[in-house]
Prior knowledge:
By secondary structure, the chain is an alpha/beta fold. 33% of the residues lie in helices and 25% in strands. α6 (206-219) runs antiparallel to α7 (261-278).
Amino acid sequence: MTKAAFLEQVWAHLDQEHLFDLVEEAVRRYTPSGAEQPAAELFAAALKAAGVPCERQPVGATGRENLLVVLGEEPVALLLVGHLDTIRLLPLEQLPAPRRAGDLLYGLGSADMKGGCAALVACLAALVASGLTLSRGVAVALVVGEEEYGDGSLRLFERLQAPLVVIGEPTGLVPCTGHHGYLELDLEVRGRRAHAALPELGASAIEPMLRWLLDIVEGAPRLGPGVVVNVRELEGGSALFVVPDHCEASLDVHLPAGLPLADFERLVEEARLRAAATAADGVALKHARVHWGRGYAPSGEPAYLDTLRRAFSLAGLPFAPGVFRSHSDASLVGGAYPVVCGPGRLEVAHARHEHVSLEEVWQAARLYVALVVEACL
Ligand SMILES: [Zn+2]
Protein backbone atom coordinates (compact mmCIF):
# COMPACT_ATOMS: atom_id res chain seq x y z
CA MET A 1 0.00 0.00 0.00
CA THR A 2 1.28 3.47 -0.81
CA LYS A 3 1.40 6.29 1.72
CA ALA A 4 -1.42 7.96 -0.17
CA ALA A 5 -3.55 4.83 0.25
CA PHE A 6 -2.79 4.65 3.99
CA LEU A 7 -3.65 8.29 4.23
CA GLU A 8 -7.02 7.79 2.53
CA GLN A 9 -7.68 5.00 4.99
CA VAL A 10 -7.12 7.33 7.99
CA TRP A 11 -8.86 10.31 6.43
CA ALA A 12 -11.96 8.16 5.98
CA HIS A 13 -12.24 8.11 9.78
CA LEU A 14 -12.23 11.91 10.18
CA ASP A 15 -15.67 13.05 11.28
CA GLN A 16 -16.32 16.59 10.09
CA GLU A 17 -19.50 17.29 12.00
CA HIS A 18 -17.99 15.99 15.22
CA LEU A 19 -14.91 18.13 14.68
CA PHE A 20 -16.93 21.33 14.14
CA ASP A 21 -19.06 20.65 17.23
CA LEU A 22 -15.89 20.05 19.25
CA VAL A 23 -14.35 23.40 18.25
CA GLU A 24 -17.59 25.21 19.07
CA GLU A 25 -17.90 23.59 22.49
CA ALA A 26 -14.23 24.34 23.23
CA VAL A 27 -14.80 28.01 22.38
CA ARG A 28 -17.88 28.06 24.61
CA ARG A 29 -15.70 27.12 27.60
CA TYR A 30 -13.85 30.13 28.99
CA THR A 31 -10.32 28.91 29.74
CA PRO A 32 -7.89 31.78 30.31
CA SER A 33 -4.30 30.97 31.34
CA GLY A 34 -4.40 29.47 34.82
CA ALA A 35 -7.95 28.13 34.46
CA GLU A 36 -7.66 25.74 31.52
CA GLN A 37 -9.33 22.73 33.10
CA PRO A 38 -12.74 22.99 31.34
CA ALA A 39 -11.01 22.73 27.95
CA ALA A 40 -8.74 19.94 29.19
CA GLU A 41 -11.79 17.99 30.38
CA LEU A 42 -13.59 18.47 27.07
CA PHE A 43 -10.69 17.23 24.96
CA ALA A 44 -9.89 14.41 27.41
CA ALA A 45 -13.50 13.22 27.13
CA ALA A 46 -13.37 13.38 23.32
CA LEU A 47 -10.14 11.35 23.32
CA LYS A 48 -11.58 8.81 25.72
CA ALA A 49 -14.74 8.40 23.61
CA ALA A 50 -12.51 7.74 20.60
CA GLY A 51 -10.46 5.15 22.48
CA VAL A 52 -7.29 7.26 22.44
CA PRO A 53 -5.08 6.69 25.52
CA CYS A 54 -4.32 10.00 27.18
CA GLU A 55 -1.78 10.87 29.87
CA ARG A 56 -2.44 13.80 32.20
CA GLN A 57 0.66 15.74 33.09
CA PRO A 58 0.32 17.90 36.23
CA VAL A 59 1.61 21.47 35.89
CA GLY A 60 2.21 23.33 39.15
CA ALA A 61 0.33 22.69 42.36
CA THR A 62 -3.16 23.96 41.53
CA GLY A 63 -4.52 20.97 39.60
CA ARG A 64 -3.73 22.25 36.12
CA GLU A 65 -2.83 19.57 33.57
CA ASN A 66 -1.40 19.12 30.11
CA LEU A 67 -2.93 16.34 28.04
CA LEU A 68 -0.38 14.10 26.35
CA VAL A 69 -1.01 11.30 23.88
CA VAL A 70 1.78 9.06 22.62
CA LEU A 71 0.96 6.58 19.85
CA GLY A 72 3.67 4.08 18.93
CA GLU A 73 7.21 3.85 20.27
CA GLU A 74 9.27 6.51 22.00
CA PRO A 75 11.39 8.43 21.19
CA VAL A 76 8.74 9.88 18.91
CA ALA A 77 9.48 11.12 15.39
CA LEU A 78 6.88 13.89 15.53
CA LEU A 79 5.42 16.04 18.29
CA LEU A 80 2.32 18.13 17.62
CA VAL A 81 1.43 20.81 20.17
CA GLY A 82 -1.64 22.91 20.93
CA HIS A 83 -2.49 25.16 23.86
CA LEU A 84 -5.67 25.01 25.91
CA ASP A 85 -5.62 28.55 27.28
CA THR A 86 -6.78 31.83 25.83
CA ILE A 87 -6.01 35.39 26.84
CA ARG A 88 -7.88 36.61 29.90
CA LEU A 89 -10.87 38.76 29.02
CA LEU A 90 -12.00 41.30 31.57
CA PRO A 91 -14.71 42.08 32.29
CA LEU A 92 -16.00 38.59 31.69
CA GLU A 93 -19.41 39.86 30.53
CA GLN A 94 -17.68 40.84 27.29
CA LEU A 95 -17.07 37.18 26.52
CA PRO A 96 -18.97 36.55 23.29
CA ALA A 97 -20.78 33.21 22.98
CA PRO A 98 -19.54 31.17 20.02
CA ARG A 99 -21.43 32.03 16.87
CA ARG A 100 -21.37 30.43 13.42
CA ALA A 101 -21.80 32.54 10.31
CA GLY A 102 -21.47 30.39 7.22
CA ASP A 103 -18.04 28.80 7.30
CA LEU A 104 -16.81 31.04 10.14
CA LEU A 105 -16.92 30.30 13.84
CA TYR A 106 -16.60 33.42 16.02
CA GLY A 107 -15.48 33.47 19.65
CA LEU A 108 -12.53 33.85 21.99
CA GLY A 109 -9.92 31.19 21.23
CA SER A 110 -11.51 30.07 17.96
CA ALA A 111 -8.32 30.90 16.04
CA ASP A 112 -5.89 31.00 18.98
CA MET A 113 -6.05 28.05 19.21
CA LYS A 114 -8.98 25.81 19.99
CA GLY A 115 -9.49 25.19 16.27
CA GLY A 116 -5.98 23.75 16.14
CA CYS A 117 -6.51 21.72 19.34
CA ALA A 118 -9.72 20.19 18.00
CA ALA A 119 -7.99 19.36 14.70
CA LEU A 120 -5.25 17.55 16.66
CA VAL A 121 -7.83 15.57 18.65
CA ALA A 122 -9.67 14.64 15.43
CA CYS A 123 -6.36 13.53 13.89
CA LEU A 124 -5.68 11.22 16.87
CA ALA A 125 -9.20 9.79 16.84
CA ALA A 126 -8.92 8.98 13.11
CA LEU A 127 -5.47 7.40 13.53
CA VAL A 128 -6.70 5.10 16.30
CA ALA A 129 -9.96 4.27 14.50
CA SER A 130 -8.07 3.33 11.33
CA GLY A 131 -5.98 0.77 13.22
CA LEU A 132 -2.85 2.00 11.40
CA THR A 133 0.41 0.68 12.90
CA LEU A 134 3.13 3.31 13.10
CA SER A 135 6.76 2.31 12.82
CA ARG A 136 7.84 5.46 14.71
CA GLY A 137 5.90 7.14 17.47
CA VAL A 138 3.90 10.36 17.36
CA ALA A 139 2.99 12.51 20.34
CA VAL A 140 0.28 15.14 20.62
CA ALA A 141 0.23 17.52 23.57
CA LEU A 142 -2.39 20.06 24.58
CA VAL A 143 -0.69 22.33 27.07
CA VAL A 144 -1.66 25.00 29.58
CA GLY A 145 -0.18 28.45 30.13
CA GLU A 146 0.91 29.46 26.61
CA GLU A 147 -0.54 32.97 26.82
CA GLU A 148 1.55 33.62 29.94
CA TYR A 149 5.06 32.21 30.29
CA GLY A 150 4.61 28.68 28.97
CA ASP A 151 4.73 26.64 32.19
CA GLY A 152 2.78 23.85 30.44
CA SER A 153 5.24 23.63 27.56
CA LEU A 154 8.25 23.73 29.87
CA ARG A 155 6.82 20.70 31.64
CA LEU A 156 6.06 18.98 28.31
CA PHE A 157 9.53 19.50 26.85
CA GLU A 158 11.14 18.08 30.02
CA ARG A 159 9.21 14.88 29.34
CA LEU A 160 9.51 14.69 25.56
CA GLN A 161 11.48 15.99 22.59
CA ALA A 162 11.22 15.18 18.89
CA PRO A 163 13.18 15.90 15.70
CA LEU A 164 10.06 17.55 14.24
CA VAL A 165 7.84 19.67 16.47
CA VAL A 166 4.78 21.35 14.97
CA ILE A 167 2.90 23.95 16.98
CA GLY A 168 -0.64 24.59 15.77
CA GLU A 169 -0.80 28.35 16.34
CA PRO A 170 -2.86 30.27 13.76
CA THR A 171 -0.84 30.73 10.56
CA GLY A 172 -3.59 30.16 7.99
CA LEU A 173 -1.89 26.76 7.46
CA VAL A 174 1.30 28.42 6.28
CA PRO A 175 4.23 26.34 7.55
CA CYS A 176 6.28 28.88 9.50
CA THR A 177 9.83 27.59 9.79
CA GLY A 178 11.12 30.93 11.10
CA HIS A 179 10.00 32.71 14.22
CA HIS A 180 10.37 36.24 15.60
CA GLY A 181 11.86 36.78 19.03
CA TYR A 182 9.67 38.28 21.71
CA LEU A 183 10.74 40.67 24.45
CA GLU A 184 8.52 41.89 27.24
CA LEU A 185 9.94 45.00 28.83
CA ASP A 186 8.87 47.13 31.80
CA LEU A 187 9.81 50.81 32.08
CA GLU A 188 9.49 52.85 35.24
CA VAL A 189 9.99 56.55 36.01
CA ARG A 190 10.03 58.00 39.51
CA GLY A 191 9.69 61.77 39.96
CA ARG A 192 8.81 64.14 42.81
CA ARG A 193 5.29 65.07 43.87
CA ALA A 194 4.27 68.70 44.24
CA HIS A 195 1.11 70.83 43.99
CA ALA A 196 -0.16 70.91 40.42
CA ALA A 197 0.01 74.72 40.41
CA LEU A 198 3.66 74.70 41.46
CA PRO A 199 5.38 72.31 39.04
CA GLU A 200 8.75 74.00 39.66
CA LEU A 201 8.74 72.34 43.11
CA GLY A 202 8.20 68.84 41.72
CA ALA A 203 9.46 66.61 38.95
CA SER A 204 6.94 64.98 36.65
CA ALA A 205 7.40 61.28 36.00
CA ILE A 206 5.00 61.25 33.07
CA GLU A 207 6.74 63.73 30.77
CA PRO A 208 10.12 61.91 30.73
CA MET A 209 8.26 58.63 30.24
CA LEU A 210 6.48 60.02 27.18
CA ARG A 211 9.75 61.27 25.70
CA TRP A 212 11.42 57.93 26.44
CA LEU A 213 8.61 55.89 24.90
CA LEU A 214 8.38 57.98 21.74
CA ASP A 215 12.16 57.85 21.35
CA ILE A 216 12.00 54.02 21.47
CA VAL A 217 9.00 53.74 19.14
CA GLU A 218 10.48 56.17 16.60
CA GLY A 219 13.98 54.68 16.84
CA ALA A 220 12.96 51.04 16.42
CA PRO A 221 12.54 51.09 12.60
CA ARG A 222 16.17 52.26 12.30
CA LEU A 223 17.30 48.88 13.69
CA GLY A 224 15.94 47.16 10.59
CA PRO A 225 12.72 46.08 8.92
CA GLY A 226 10.17 44.04 10.83
CA VAL A 227 10.82 45.35 14.35
CA VAL A 228 7.48 45.75 16.14
CA VAL A 229 7.09 47.78 19.33
CA ASN A 230 3.72 47.85 21.04
CA VAL A 231 3.23 50.12 24.06
CA ARG A 232 0.86 47.75 25.79
CA GLU A 233 0.26 49.50 29.08
CA LEU A 234 0.88 53.00 30.39
CA GLU A 235 -0.03 54.06 33.86
CA GLY A 236 0.88 57.00 36.04
CA GLY A 237 -0.17 59.96 38.13
CA SER A 238 -3.21 60.33 40.31
CA ALA A 239 -6.29 62.50 40.70
CA LEU A 240 -4.78 64.54 43.56
CA PHE A 241 -3.98 67.75 41.61
CA VAL A 242 -0.31 67.01 41.91
CA VAL A 243 2.70 66.74 39.68
CA PRO A 244 2.81 62.96 39.11
CA ASP A 245 5.66 61.19 40.84
CA HIS A 246 5.38 57.83 39.13
CA CYS A 247 4.74 56.34 35.71
CA GLU A 248 5.08 52.79 34.45
CA ALA A 249 4.86 51.24 30.99
CA SER A 250 4.98 47.75 29.54
CA LEU A 251 6.17 47.04 26.01
CA ASP A 252 5.74 44.04 23.69
CA VAL A 253 8.63 43.87 21.27
CA HIS A 254 8.86 41.44 18.36
CA LEU A 255 12.28 41.15 16.77
CA PRO A 256 13.17 39.42 13.47
CA ALA A 257 15.45 36.44 14.10
CA GLY A 258 18.59 38.08 12.71
CA LEU A 259 18.36 41.11 14.96
CA PRO A 260 20.30 40.76 18.25
CA LEU A 261 18.41 41.50 21.43
CA ALA A 262 21.39 43.60 22.53
CA ASP A 263 20.74 46.03 19.64
CA PHE A 264 17.23 46.70 20.89
CA GLU A 265 18.30 46.97 24.51
CA ARG A 266 20.98 49.50 23.50
CA LEU A 267 18.27 51.59 21.81
CA VAL A 268 16.24 51.52 25.04
CA GLU A 269 19.24 52.50 27.14
CA GLU A 270 20.30 55.35 24.84
CA ALA A 271 16.73 56.67 24.81
CA ARG A 272 16.69 56.42 28.59
CA LEU A 273 19.83 58.54 28.84
CA ARG A 274 18.35 61.18 26.52
CA ALA A 275 15.09 61.32 28.49
CA ALA A 276 17.02 61.52 31.76
CA ALA A 277 19.18 64.35 30.45
CA THR A 278 16.17 66.59 29.85
CA ALA A 279 14.25 65.58 33.01
CA ALA A 280 14.26 67.57 36.26
CA ASP A 281 16.79 66.75 38.97
CA GLY A 282 15.91 63.72 41.05
CA VAL A 283 13.98 61.87 38.32
CA ALA A 284 14.95 58.18 38.06
CA LEU A 285 14.31 56.08 34.95
CA LYS A 286 14.84 52.35 34.84
CA HIS A 287 13.89 49.37 32.72
CA ALA A 288 13.69 45.64 33.35
CA ARG A 289 13.43 42.66 31.01
CA VAL A 290 10.38 40.60 32.03
CA HIS A 291 10.61 37.89 29.39
CA TRP A 292 12.70 37.01 26.36
CA GLY A 293 11.84 34.23 23.91
CA ARG A 294 14.48 33.87 21.22
CA GLY A 295 13.54 33.88 17.56
CA TYR A 296 15.07 31.70 14.87
CA ALA A 297 15.52 31.34 11.14
CA PRO A 298 16.87 27.96 10.05
CA SER A 299 19.92 28.29 7.85
CA GLY A 300 19.84 26.14 4.73
CA GLU A 301 17.43 23.23 4.47
CA PRO A 302 16.35 21.86 7.84
CA ALA A 303 16.31 18.04 8.00
CA TYR A 304 12.54 17.93 8.46
CA LEU A 305 11.73 20.06 5.41
CA ASP A 306 11.20 17.15 3.01
CA THR A 307 8.77 15.45 5.39
CA LEU A 308 6.86 18.68 5.70
CA ARG A 309 6.81 19.31 1.95
CA ARG A 310 5.53 15.80 1.20
CA ALA A 311 2.78 16.08 3.84
CA PHE A 312 1.58 19.34 2.31
CA SER A 313 1.61 17.76 -1.12
CA LEU A 314 -0.41 14.76 0.10
CA ALA A 315 -2.91 17.10 1.76
CA GLY A 316 -3.18 19.16 -1.43
CA LEU A 317 -2.07 22.34 0.31
CA PRO A 318 0.34 24.97 -1.06
CA PHE A 319 3.82 24.76 0.47
CA ALA A 320 5.33 28.21 1.00
CA PRO A 321 7.28 28.42 4.28
CA GLY A 322 6.91 31.66 6.21
CA VAL A 323 7.84 33.37 9.46
CA PHE A 324 5.71 33.45 12.60
CA ARG A 325 5.75 37.07 13.71
CA SER A 326 4.32 36.62 17.18
CA HIS A 327 5.20 34.90 20.42
CA SER A 328 4.59 31.19 20.98
CA ASP A 329 5.86 28.27 23.02
CA ALA A 330 8.29 27.55 20.16
CA SER A 331 10.99 29.52 21.98
CA LEU A 332 10.87 26.96 24.82
CA VAL A 333 11.70 23.93 22.68
CA GLY A 334 15.29 22.78 23.04
CA GLY A 335 17.02 21.17 20.06
CA ALA A 336 15.11 21.25 16.79
CA TYR A 337 13.47 24.51 15.76
CA PRO A 338 9.71 23.92 15.71
CA VAL A 339 7.45 24.64 12.78
CA VAL A 340 4.38 26.74 13.57
CA CYS A 341 1.37 25.79 11.47
CA GLY A 342 -2.31 25.82 12.29
CA PRO A 343 -5.75 27.00 11.24
CA GLY A 344 -6.91 30.59 11.76
CA ARG A 345 -5.18 33.89 11.26
CA LEU A 346 -2.95 35.75 13.70
CA GLU A 347 -4.60 38.96 12.45
CA VAL A 348 -7.81 38.12 14.33
CA ALA A 349 -6.31 36.36 17.37
CA HIS A 350 -6.77 38.35 20.61
CA ALA A 351 -9.19 40.64 18.74
CA ARG A 352 -12.86 41.16 19.57
CA HIS A 353 -13.95 39.65 16.26
CA GLU A 354 -11.74 36.55 16.58
CA HIS A 355 -12.89 33.78 14.26
CA VAL A 356 -11.73 30.74 12.37
CA SER A 357 -12.77 29.14 9.11
CA LEU A 358 -14.20 25.71 9.89
CA GLU A 359 -13.09 24.50 6.46
CA GLU A 360 -9.55 25.46 7.46
CA VAL A 361 -9.87 23.54 10.75
CA TRP A 362 -10.93 20.56 8.63
CA GLN A 363 -7.92 21.05 6.32
CA ALA A 364 -5.70 21.24 9.41
CA ALA A 365 -6.97 17.87 10.68
CA ARG A 366 -6.23 16.35 7.26
CA LEU A 367 -2.78 17.96 7.18
CA TYR A 368 -1.88 16.71 10.67
CA VAL A 369 -2.85 13.18 9.64
CA ALA A 370 -0.66 13.55 6.53
CA LEU A 371 2.24 14.70 8.72
CA VAL A 372 1.90 11.63 10.92
CA VAL A 373 1.79 9.34 7.88
CA GLU A 374 4.89 11.03 6.39
CA ALA A 375 6.92 11.19 9.61
CA CYS A 376 5.87 8.00 11.40
CA LEU A 377 4.66 5.32 9.00
ZN1 LIG B 1 -1.80 30.97 20.69
